[in-house]
Amino acid sequence: MTRTAVVLLSGGLDSATVLAIARSEGFEIVALSFRYGQRHGVEIAAAQIVAKRAGVRRHVVADIDLRVFGGSALTSDIAVPKGRTALEMSEGIPITYVPARNTIFLSYALALAEVSGASDIYLGVNSLD
């Protein structure tokens, strides 16, 4: 019997690695990506390429709007800092952090897991998230 897992797939290195781990553990993959009001659509395009190359069973792209909360340079008109030193980048929560994004994403992943018959959910995140 084939086991199914939902993989939250942003198109970045962390989520692509997690997808590869899930596949190596024998899971059939249902990928989940989000258009959440982020400034750049390149994430979705990258996720679609990763999903296709990995042969996922289904790739869902959910539209939600996290801009309503504000508080992040990814979802509002706050400037993204450029040219920071490694020390500056290591201090505090970055302005690109989107409040509760991963918690919200996990809620959607749980719903998709229920309707997909998935037993597992995979998520790759940065330690600051």
Would you kindly provide a written description of the structure presented here, covering whatever features stand out?
The protein has a domain at 3-66 and 101-122: Rossmann fold (3-Layer(aba) Sandwich). Helix content is 36%, strand content 19%. The protein has helices at 13-24, 42-54, 86-90, 101-116; strands at 3-8, 27-35, 58-63, 120-122. The relative contact order is 0.23.
Properties at a glance:
single chain, 129 residues, alpha/beta, Rossmann fold, 4-stranded parallel sheet, 4 helices, 4 strands, 36% helix, 19% strand, globular
Layout of helices and strands:
Blueprint (H helix, E strand, L loop, with lengths): L2 E6 L4 H12 L2 E9 L6 H13 L3 E6 L22 H5 L10 H16 L3 E3 L7
Parallel strand pairs: 1-2, 1-4, 2-3
CATH class of the domain at 3-66 and 101-122 reads Alpha Beta
Distance linking N and C termini:
35 Å
Largest sheet: number of strands, sense, barrel closure: 4 strands, parallel
Name the CATH superfamily classification of the domain at 3-66 and 101-122: HUPs
CATH fold name of the domain at 3-66 and 101-122: Rossmann fold
Beta-strand percentage range: 15-25%
The overall average pLDDT, rounded, is 88
Q: Give unreliable regions as ranges.
A: none
Q: Report the structural category.
A: alpha/beta
Q: Could you give the order of strands across the largest sheet?
A: 3-2-1-4
Succession of helices and strands: EHEHEHHE
- Report helical residue fraction: 25-40%
Taking Cα atoms only, what radius of gyration do you get, to the nearest Å?
A: 15 Å
